[in-house]
Amino acid sequence: MYTEVDVFVSNFTLIDPEIYQLWIEGCSSSEAVTTLHQRAISKQTGATVELIASDVLDHYRTFALLERLLTVPSKLSEQMVFQIDEPTKHMLIEKYYDLDDAVIRELLGRKLSSRHRKDLDEVAERSGAPLRCCRRQFDNVRRVFKAVEEMPGNVVANIRSTFLLSEPLAKKYGAVVFIACMRFETTKRKLQYLSFNDFFHCAQAIMASWTYSCTGPEYYDTEMDREFLLELRELRILLDKEKEHKHLICMRLKPKLLEKSYQELELNFRLYTRALVGLACNLHRGRELRSLFIDLLERCIEPLRLGCWPKTDLAQFLCAYEQCALQMDVLREADLKSVWERYMRVVSKCLLTMYHF
Q: Residue 185 in 3-state DSSP?
């Protein structure tokens, strides 16, 4: 007589985060073994090089199988082949989609096509990252871009729900997607001093204030508010009140600025105000919008650098420049106060971010 026995076989998948990180960084299995051996893993655990190599190879085989699931993160949660706890699943997805700032800076402005994937050697050389690592990030950026570029709503929320990423990482991808959608010029030699973090903060400011980000459930915050860009042309009326504007700013800033900065303000106010207002008046044109960062650099930042403005004085000037214009009747009578505030909110953020002096 036989007794019935219920049997459950568990196949819990163990993931070593250290080995996974080496795989993510693009190390080959032999390079990973060498790195772990140099980190004195064998002394800590008593493991031989052969045992470390066997463990690494086993992990790498597992990672190769998991990668097919990681390209569609929701599948990792739904599948039953690998028994993985939730914190480990989150770690696998987060690290797989992690972005290296140096690599992403090199990818900004490049077309996300399969043809350009073959030309990542230059990206690897300039960023110092292994080619495998560059390819993974290129593929991830292209995958995210294709998945969310035409989704209505908040791009960061769409990325989080589709790829199960943390908010900070989803915001990075959101900035990359936005810059790609807008086709901003980021590759000019003059802009090479700017890091991905600089472009990230500028993109965040533009998305928050210049896009259809608050117009309803069907809005796209990867699409510029065309009505707003057209309204910016009306700001040229400020140039007709240049003397009044300058007088209000000088009265406010004379007790606050360094003497050298104040002299620069008095001497070059016309140059600064025509650059700032002139930039606004042309943003409704696609070419000028795409060249926003190079125009900010050439028309605003380079003259400010020549004037040797300290960043603290520049911040005070931009604040006064915005606030004093709002005190003038010209903007109120033309119903342009909110347009001016939206414009200066972004321009001030971008200028202070890009101003490395």
A: coil
